[in-house]
Amino acid sequence: MSDQFVEYAKSQMGVIERLLKGLPGIGGYIDKELRRDADKRVRDGLAQLLDQDKAALLEVQNKLLNSGGLLFMDDLDGAIVKLQTLIDRVKTASYGYAGFFDAQRIKEPQLDALYRFDVAMVQEAGVLGGAIEALRNAVADKSNIGPTIDRVTQTIADLGRLYDKRKEAILAPDLLAQPGYAPDVAVPPVSNAATDVATPAASNAATDIANDPDAVG
Asked: Is residue 63 packed enough to be buried (19+ CB in 10 Å), middle (13-18) or exposed (0-12)?
């Protein structure tokens, strides 16, 4: 494994850790006026990580071409195109009127479900990074290249489906209340910086929670 790719792997791990620690969590979604900003923070961080993944894939593609792997170029090109399409969707998401952003009151279990989507997307992006690392090794060894490209492509597709479900839930937040709709992932503790919301609306939201523990916003 080249020093450049080791640095990519270390960088990606650092970005994933920072993203998980910096996710807005339930607290970031309580204030109706801040929900769009919280969503953008999640998408911007995810796009940054996926941009790194794309750069690594392009590096692998060059090494594959230089080592005579023309047989696999179409499949790898397809994976890169799918990843770029996903990056564009994440960066330029436009919701218009969305029930999650515009509803005055969202129940806390629904906020928790959306937070689990955030965590799952970041974790799946980490899985993609691992698949790309495996492909890099396969190309270097000239072994198992085709199945490893398939794994990369499948992981991109899985991440795309996860993103689609999250977007659908933002448009129709009642989906978040459905059992099994949100991914079943363990969520990390949310830092105080991510949960502190210093606005009058947030104070009112906190009062609402105290009066009605199941409803926030």
From this structure: middle
Closest CA to 106 of 22, 38, 40, 163: 38
Lowest pLDDT segment from 33-42, 82-91, 196-205: 196-205
Give the pLDDT score at 7: 57
User: How far is CA 40 from each of CA 79, 90, 116, 178, rounded to the nearest angstrom?
Assistant: 25, 9, 16, 24
Pick from 15, 76, 18: nearest CA to 50: 15
DSSP string, 132-169: HHHHHHHHHHT-SHHHHHHHHHHHHHHHHHHHHHHHHH
Q: At what angle do helices 35-66 and 3-22 cross, to 10 degrees?
A: 170
| pLDDT at residue 61, rounded to an integer | 96
Residue 215 has φ and ψ, to the nearest 5°, of: -130, 135
At residue 197 the predicted structure's pLDDT band, cuts being 50, 70 and 90, is: very low
Flag whether the pTM goes above 0.85.
no
Q: Is there a contact between 2 and 67 (Cβ–Cβ < 8 Å)?
A: no
State phi, psi for 103 to the nearest 5 degrees: -70, 140
Q: By the 8 A CB rule, do 129 and 12 touch? A: yes
Q: Tokens standing for 104? A: 């005055």
Residue carrying structure tokens 């994933």 = 16
